[in-house]
Amino acid sequence: MLSSHKIFIKGMVCERCILAVKEIFADLHVPITGITLGEVTTIAALSDPDMKVVKEKLAALGFTLLEDKRTRLIKQVKSLVEEVYAGTYDFPDNFKFSDVVTRAVHQPYPVVSAIFSELEGVTLEKYIMEYRTEKVKELLVYTDETLADIAFRLGYSSAPHLSRQFKAQTGLNTSHFKEIRKMKQSLTHPGEQSS
C-alpha cells in the first residue's frame, strides 16, 4: 500500500490555480494523487531539496507553501535533539529528554513520539541513539577527549554505558575511531608522535 503526503498551499483560489499548481508538479515529475484548492497529495513525502524547488516555483506564481503542524513539530524536536546532544548541554540530575520535549512543544511526550515515528519511519529514541552515536564518532576522531569526557558531554551515565551502546549501534569499539584519529594525525603531521 502506498503512503500519501499532503502539501498545503496558500493562495490557491480558483480552478486556474489548481491547473497552474498541477503543472508545476508535472514539470518536476512529482506524481500526485489528488489536488484541491490549497492542498496537493503526493504519493510520498518529498525530500528537502525537492520541497525547496516546489516552494520556489510556487512563489513565482504568487503561492506560498504552508508547513503542516506535524512537520513543524518534527523540525522542533530534531532541533531539540541537536541542542541537547551537541556536547555543551548542562544535564541536570535525573535528566529526561521527554521532559525537555514536553516543556518545549507543550504536548505530551507519547503524542510527540508517535507523530515522530509515523512521519520519520523511526522511533524518536532510535533517532536520538543514532544522533548521539554520530556525535561520539565525531568527538573520538576530531578531539583528544577521553571516553569519560565524551560520556559526560553527551549525557551517558558512564563511559562503559557509552561503550556498550556504541558497540550495539555500530558493531565497532570506540577504540576503532581513536585509531582513525591517530591515522589522520600521522597523515597531517608526519614524523610527529601521536599521543
TrEMBL record:
SUPFAM superfamilies: Homeodomain-like. InterPro entries: Homeodomain-like_sf, HTH_AraC. The keyword Secreted does not apply. Pfam families: HTH_18. One of its GO terms (molecular function) is sequence-specific DNA binding. Residues 116-180 form the HTH araC/xylS-type domain. Keywords: DNA-binding, Transcription, Transcription regulation. PANTHER family: ARAC-FAMILY TRANSCRIPTIONAL REGULATOR, HTH-TYPE TRANSCRIPTIONAL ACTIVATOR RHAS. This is AraC-like DNA-binding protein. The lineage of its organism: Bacteria, Pseudomonadati, Bacteroidota, Chitinophagia, Chitinophagales.
